[in-house]
Amino acid sequence: MSVSSAPGYSLWQMVGYMARLGTIGFGGPVALVGYMHRDLVEDRKWISEADYKEGLALSQLMPGPLAAQLGIYLGYVHYGITGATLAGIAFVLPSFLMVVALGAAYLAYGGLTWMQAVFYGVGAAVIGIIALSAYKLTTKSIGKDKLLWAIYLVAAGFTIVTESEIVWIFLISGMVVWLVRAPPKRWFPKGGNAALVSLPVLGDHLSTACAVGATLDFSVLMQIGIFFAEAGAFVFGSGLAIVPFLYGGVVSQHHWLTERQFVDAVAVAMITPGPVVITVGFIGYLVAGFAGAVVAALATFIPCYLFTIIPAPYFRKHGRKPAIVAFVDGCTAAAIGTIAGAVVVLGKRSITDIPTTLVMAVTLFALWKLKKLQEPVIVAAAAVVGLILYQL
User: Fold this and answer.
1) Hey, how many other C-beta atoms are within 10 angstroms of the C-beta on 81?
2) Is 284 exposed, middle or buried (0-12, 13-18, 19+ CB in 10 A)?
3) Per-residue pLDDT tens for 11-29?
């Protein structure tokens, strides 16, 4: 296996970018994947459109947080395992430190009542940010292709109706485009190999990635490790998809947190930059202090790291074959449709009245007209608006 040669950037430039995105990248997975496309594909041209699409397809097919996996894959494109590892750490670490600090403040002051007020404004602004990101991804990747548009609309509609993301949507979409554009000449080639040989390999490593859950231990840290490893290894979709799973285990099963504490944990994830799934660090801190935060974060992100770097060589090696290109195009169309559907789902929760509608509209207008305006500025302004309006 060999990675692409002569990149137009250094390893440390990529690490620096991921650290910056993890520090000021607001908006959750939908916005973050949009930022990566805008910054790395369109503006800096470090990553090709084809490599980005491969990474997005792989991130949707594998369980775990979408944005973190895409960042890991993009680090892998030119710098292999080292690039993937450093890019992943740089992306996750800033937001992890933030949620740990918020966890300490939360315990010290008996809850952070201002969170809901801040989220009132920030949540509305975030919808504007991710709506524009989804629009740009759609126009760039779907274009005028009728087949991809059909897949895109089906995936978006399914997400809106069910409020969930299911991996079979991506697999079926990839298969449909593959069969239409590059059907196999032989369904059963000599030797009995299947027409697509690269994808089944992914499942061979599932037990290895989840092995952390096989050792029984009665300590709280081990319980945290097992539970969050399951969350990282078996929950498909964006980081938001992990929230229902976490609720069932953290509140209902283990009784580590009350419902109010869990809601506050989700609010922390939404008002901090970086991957939404970093809320596991906040939860781990409330349960068992800093050690709990570290164990929860490692247990959640190690599976998604393995699920990215293990199949990555196969995507890099076979990704230019017509059948794989067609499969990736189908998966990408479904992924972007799911992202667009997620905007509607999240919007129903965050846009609840006239003030939040106005915040979203102003955000869209500002980002559309003021090209140099940075998202963190908008998020900060929305937080101030939320603090003022929430009390009224």
Assistant:
1) 13
2) buried
3) 999 999 999 999 988 777 7
